[in-house]
Amino acid sequence: MLLKNKLSFLRIASAATILLFVFTGVTYLDQVYQTSVVTDYSNLSKPKRMDKSTQHLKQLGFSEMAISHMSDGEIERFEAIKGEVVAERDIYREVWNNDTEHLSKENYEKRLKEVSESVLPKFSALQQVHLKLIDEGNRRVTAITEHHFDYNPASGKPLGIELQLRPEYTVIDHMARQISWTVPRFSHTITSSTEAVQDGQPPVMNDEFAFFDNSSTFSLFYTVPWKQSGLLKDTVGLHFFTITRFEVPADFLFADMYVQGQNPELSDVVQYELQSNE
Fold first, then answer.
1. What is the mean pLDDT of residues 236-249?
2. What is the pLDDT of residue 274?
3. If you ran DSSP here, which 8-state letter would residue 217 be given?
4. Distance (Å, rounded) from C-alpha 23 to C-alpha 40?
5. What residues contact residue 183 under an 8 Å CB cut-off, 6+ apart?
6. In the predicted model, what is the mean pLDDT of residues 1-30?
7. Any idea what DSSP says for residue 202?
8. Which residues are paired to 219 by β-bridges?
9. Closest Cα partner for 160 from 116, 84, 214?
10. pLDDT over 50 (residue 277)
11. 225: cis peptide before it, omega within 30°?
C-alpha cells in the first residue's frame, strides 16, 4: 500500500514538473515575441485621424505618439499655436537600477534591435527622452517633453518629472498624459490606454541636497503611476508627455526650461536665445 502511494505521488510530481516546464517554456517564448512587438515603435502609434489639425500639430513639433492619444478637445486646444521648433534635445539611454549609459541614436537603435532579437532575458530599460521649445512669437513659448520606454522589464516605480521654470515666467497653459500598452498572456494583440496626469507637489525629502529643489523656481511636478502587469496581462509599452505654454518677460534674452526626473534619474535643460529668433 505504501509503495503504491509512493508511485502515485511520483507520477503526480512528474506530471506537475512537466507541466511547469511546458508553462515556463511557452511563457518564455511568449515574452520573447512580445519584446519584438514592443520594440517596434510603429506598432504602438496608431493615429486616430490625419487631417489639417493633426498635420499642423505634427509640423509644429508634436510627435505622432502624442497626437494620436490626444482627445479632440486637446487637439482643438493646441492647433491654434503658430510657430516653429527653435531648440530641442534628444536623449537615448540604457538604464539599470543604479546606472545609466547615454547612447547615440545609431547605437540606441542597434541596442534596440539586439533586444528585440535576443532569446535571453534583459534587465535594463531602453528609454528615449525628447525636449522641444516652440517659439510662438510675442515672447510666448511652448515646451514639449516626451519620455518613452521602448523596453522596460521592471516598471514598478512611479516616474517623477519636474519641469522647472523661472519664477518670472507666466504659465499660460499646461497638460500631461500617460499612455500604456498591454497585451493578454499568450496573445499579441496590443491595447492602448491613456489618462491625464495632474501636476502636484514633489515628494518631501529630509535631505539638505534633495533631488527636487524648487526653492528658487516655479515648478510643475508630475508623478506617473505606471500601469502594472497583472496575472493575465503584461504591460509592454510606456509613454509620458507634457505640454507647457509660458510667456517670457520683455527684458529676458533667453527662454529655457530645466527637466528633472526620478525612476530613472534625469537632469537636462532646453533653451534658446530670444534675440536670435525675434
1. 92
2. 86
3. S
4. 26
5. 34, 37, 189, 190, 191, 233, 234, 236
6. 55
7. P
8. 164
9. 214
10. no
11. no
The residue length of the chain stands at: 278
Average pLDDT (195-204) is 82
Sheet-wide strand order for 170-184: 100-103, 84-95, 125-137, 140-151, 233-247, 170-184, 191-196
Beta bridge partners of 262: 160
Rounded CA-CA distance 131/258 in Å is 10
Q: Does 252 have pLDDT greater than 80?
A: yes
Residue 11 grid coordinates:
507520477
Report the alpha-carbon distance of residue 174 to residue 257 in Å, rounded. Answer: 14
Percent of the chain with pLDDT over 70: 68
Q: Which amino acid is at 220?
A: L
Residues 6+ apart with CB under 8 A from 233: 182, 183, 184, 185
Q: Are 38 and 151 in contact (CB under 8 A)?
A: yes
Give the confidence band of 226 by pLDDT, cuts at 50, 70, 90.
Answer: confident
Q: Which helix or strand (DSSP H or E) is residue 180 part of?
A: strand 170-184
For residues 202 and 214, what is the distance between their CA atoms, to the nearest angstrom?
9
